[in-house]
Amino acid sequence: MAGNLHVRNLDDDLIRKLKMRAARHGRSAEAEHREILRQALANETEPDFDDLAAELRKLTASRKQTPSEVLLREDRDER
After folding, report:
1. Residue 79 binned pLDDT confidence (cut-offs 50, 70, 90)
2. How big is the CA angle at 21 (ends 25 and 41), to the nearest 5 degrees?
3. Which GO BP terms sit in this record (predicted)?
């Protein structure tokens, strides 16, 4: 599925460099932009859930943890 992407507020120098690179490769600036994005994201992989969960556990390891059953009991007792 093809879509459109609009990039706003680019530096004039960045646009000039993109156009120069596109000219070197015999492409339009838009085609060069597509190719740069394609190459940048070609080897990008999404982390799986287990890796994300492990990272989150590592980030929160030093924080005090309250078991969910304690929180549920406190909530029920307040009613």
Report:
1. confident
2. 85
3. regulation of DNA-templated transcription
